[in-house]
Amino acid sequence: MSIYEFPIESVYESIQRGDMVALSDNLDQLYDSGKRSAEAKAAVVFGYKVLGESIGDGDLILTFLSYDRARQMFWNDRQLLENELNFLHKFTEEFGHILSDPDWNLIKSIVRLITSNLPKSILVELEEILSKFKEASIAGDFKERNEPSELFFDIQTIIRVQFSRVLDRNGEYPTSEFYCSECEINYADGIWEPSNSSSFLQFATRQKCCPECGSTHGKLLSVKSFAEELDCSQHTVRAWIRDHKLNVHRIRGLVRIPTSEIDRMTIVMPAVNE
Fold first, then answer.
1. Is residue 163 a part of any domain in this protein?
2. 13 within domain boundaries
């Protein structure tokens, strides 16, 4: 059965097999398809719940992505909101001893983005978990640390991945992503900083090099951007990936494709499609 013809069924099949890699790919396919029927939304919520619980604390970015995408299906559902906020608060508790003032300012912006435009009745129900962020913000010793911590770029990745649509709607510019194989980290050509604007964030450019070793690398593209560059469907690109016809990086659960693959695929595309 093709996941492209039956994306909902493929989500449940990958759960039954216990194949979390396939589940992540199938959920990406279903989420990016734009299907928002009650059946599709239920599959997305359940699938990301299983994926998030399976990953646990092993991957901050992918676990948070799971909670956030589930919440996006029912944006004012109290339980889904609490799941996402509780995970974020658990993260601040676990790493509070190394988080810095710049880190905390970004985390507060993320919380504001999650809770923006919610009815007052929902905000009242979330008061208990939101008060924990306020208390930690007042009592924490992070203000003594002015330099971004080692987790700063993970928090930046959360912002780029989770809130790209929100930021795009507010006229901001998306960042370009890169990957340093030596340091095994992904980075971008800009960072998001807290702002008093309606988007709560503003973009600041930075040097296009690895923040760890200073090396430069080729730009990475999402599946959607790569498909647009080659004027083909995302389904086609995902098929190439699954058939190992395309070189990709899997960065913290996110599929990214080097721009060098554009020229290669332009040449070999007729043979690849056979």
1. no
2. yes
* Residue 13 Cα to chain centre, angstroms: 24
**What pTM did the predictor assign?**
0.72
Please count the structural domains in the chain: 1
The answer to the question of residue 249 being in a domain is no
Tens of pLDDT, residue by residue over 208-245, are 778 778 887 778 888 888 888 888 877 788 888 888 88
Residue 168: other Cβ atoms inside 10 A? 12
Structure confidence by residue, pLDDT tens digits, 129-148: 999 888 887 766 777 788 87
Q: CA 10, CA 3: separation in Å to the nearest integer?
A: 5
Contact 63, 87 (CB under 8 A): yes
Mean of the per-residue pLDDT values of the chain: 80
Amino acid in the structure at residue 93: E
Output DSSP code: residue 57: G
Burial of 204 (0-12, 13-18, 19+ CB in 10 A): exposed
Residue 6 lies in domain: 1-58
What count of other Cβ atoms lies within 10 Å of the Cβ of residue 240?
A: 23
